[in-house]
Amino acid sequence: MKQDQIDALRALPVPDQQLLIGAQWQAAQGGETLPVVSPIDGRTLCQLASASAGDVDLAVQAARQSFERGAWSRMAPAERKKILHRIAERIEAQQAELAVLGVRDNGTEIAMAWKAEPGSAAATFRYYAECVDKVHGEIAPTADSVLGLVHREPVGVVGVIVPWNFPLMIGAWKIAPALAAGNSVVLKPSEDASLSLLALARLCLEAGLPPGVLNVVTGRGDSAGAALAAHMDVDVLVFTGSGPVGRRLLQAAAASNLKRVYLELGGKSPNIVFADAPDLAQAAKVSAQGIFRNSGQVCVAGSRLLVQRAVHDEFVERLVAIARGIQVGDPLDIATEVGAVSSAGQLARNVRAVAQAEAEGARRRVGGEVIAPVAGGSYMSPAVFDRVTPAMQLAREEVFGPVLAVLPFDDEADAVRLANDSVYGLASAVWTGNLSRAHRMVRAIRAGVVHVNTYGGPDITVPLGGVRQSGNGHDKSMHALDKYLELKTAWIQL
User: Active-site positions?
Assistant: First the structure.
């Protein structure tokens, strides 16, 4: 993208947004709205329809009716594939518009948003389009007198609740496989970043997705989100977000129809640098990106940096120099390296985390200040803390901001102990030139993803999911389809 194209798209007015129920765009029943405030400059972009429990019920009814009619659920897989490919084509055709709209909504730097949001979403829809006719049943190895068949069928109505940090990417990770499996979907985006997903819904209708197969209810989590979680006619609920909200969703499922719930709840991911890392300069550069990109608002962010004592001081100095040189600014400026914090509320939480770290004795080497490269916006300079101990809050709790905790370690056993000293288990990384050590660490670290000599980058072909309090179930890859399919046995006496 060129800067003049970005500036032209930035200047476009954003119309007030409505709910999508069936094939109709409509206001919330009570007429309630929420302001969409851009973290870039604090300006209100538009008003967002704020759905009530009644609106959610209408959306679930529309999804159920579409599923039972079978226009999508019983459509030939080859035909579903064509529509999913058309969705991907429309995302690609609108990539610039979607990227800029999303940045205006949540503040991600445009260079990252371009690839991680519409770029990733298009690739995800293409991947699952190709999966549609690759999912098949089984014939069991039974006696000759019996035919045992295992059918794979869509579950029915899928509720999807998506966060604000990468709404289009994470939304596609959930919507595309749910649709590929033949389900109908009710999507609840974050009230802090709904615009790009509403635009995606319009593209889905244009591509030929039948009415009611994708419904969108925007609004507050404690109303629209809670109603979706508690609904008796939602078969599966998938969510990415915080642990406290994930617990409430599980409670709602238990109190309602015992719907299956799959959660990705973030983490406090360890990024482990051994003295024998093949390139300390590259390790420092990538480690900085692994915590500071998107202002640290990344589920898999390497927020705990474990560095072997022999290179600890040198490595910290490298990181401090990198952090000091990062250009934080207007996320729609292509020269910006780190954009805005998503909201004033999130910025305030980051500030409290910095103050708490200092109060507990961690040493702030750089950053952690509220800055104002754009008046009225929400921005923080990247922060590096050393002298962090495992008991400190900064080493144990997810900040979800550009704040890095550095802890030293002595040897491999010490690194494993520190890495696993967490209630979370989403991502991790190991930097080493020793192949045997790399394999030992992959086995020893309790996390859903272990990077080796890199941080970030796994594409749609491999699963993403956590262990322990980072959640359950997986997004991405063929394995994601398991969440959206039922197994049905046919036992036939011959």
Answer: 264, 299
